[in-house]
Design goal:
Shape: globular
Order of helices and strands: HHHHHHHHHHHH
Strand content: under 5%
Radius of gyration: 18 Å
Distance between the termini: 38 Å
């Protein structure tokens, strides 16, 4: 429930400022940005991550610097500012490699996949996912492995190969369900709904979209809800 977390992060920022606790200021500002991102409020997220990065530089913790830059890259990606996102990815890779942080490297390459996908540079997108998978397997992050399954599925849908995408979304859903990862379950069910839609299986597409909507309402992500309603509208339109 990220919306309820935000006031606590803000209180933490105020206290850290009063104490001159630079690392605490960075962590609270970064966390506030992430909470806004989860609810797809990317303009607000950008404001807080822009405040967090100078504090991360001042604190000098390279693991936190990698995290700050990758989080801002993710915000820029969602705002479709791909040049800025790639620049932050390069910075994040620099610090993550110094820190030997496999999880951060996996996340950075996952973001780069989204950037290249948005630019319709699909070979580069698949190459980024391959690198991301390698690092997530080293770190043992099942949540992010599931996300990469979903990303592969989305790429295959864009390439007009929805049948090949189906098992990737099913694998992503299975992992997210085992982890009770509500936020990503909404995305994965919406993704598999799009697969069924492209396969003209409208009954399954509707069922998956409705599941997605239930999860999206739990997280309060209104942007995601809007996308799901659009999916349901497209299904009804296709059915006349």
């Amino acid at each position: 429930d990220p919306q309820k977390a935000i006031p606590y992060f803000k209180q933490g920022t105020i206290l850290a400022t009063r104490l001159g606790f630079v690392a605490g200021m960075e962590k609270c500002l970064n966390a506030t940005s992430l909470a806004f991102s989860v609810n797809a409020k990317y303009d607000s997220a950008l404001i807080y991550i822009n405040y967090a990065i100078p504090h991360a530089i001042k604190a000098g913790n390279i693991r936190r610097l990698a995290l700050a830059y990758l989080n801002r890259a993710d915000v820029y990606t969602n705002l479709n500012d791909f040049p800025a996102a790639l620049k932050d990815c390069d910075m994040a890779i620099l610090y993550a490699e110094k820190a030997k942080n496999n999880d951060a490297l996996g996340r950075i390459y996952s973001i780069m996949n989204s950037i290249y996908s948005g630019l319709k540079q699909y070979p580069e997108a698949f190459a980024a996912i391959d690198k991301s998978d390698r690092y997530f397997n080293l770190s043992g992050s099942r949540q992010m492995v599931a996300m990469n399954y979903s990303e592969r599925g989305e790429l295959l849908v864009k390439l007009g190969e929805p049948a090949k995408a189906l098992h990737y979304f099913k694998d992503a859903i299975a992992i997210a369900d085992s982890l009770e990862d509500v936020e990503n379950l909404a995305a994965y069910y919406n993704g598999i709904s799009e697969v069924y839609f492209n396969l003209k299986n409208y009954a399954e597409a509707t069922s998956a979209a409705n599941m997605s909507l239930q999860y999206a309402k739990q997280t309060g992500n209104t942007r995601q809800e809007a996308g799901i309603y659009e999916s349901l509208s497209n299904i009804e339109s296709a059915k006349n």
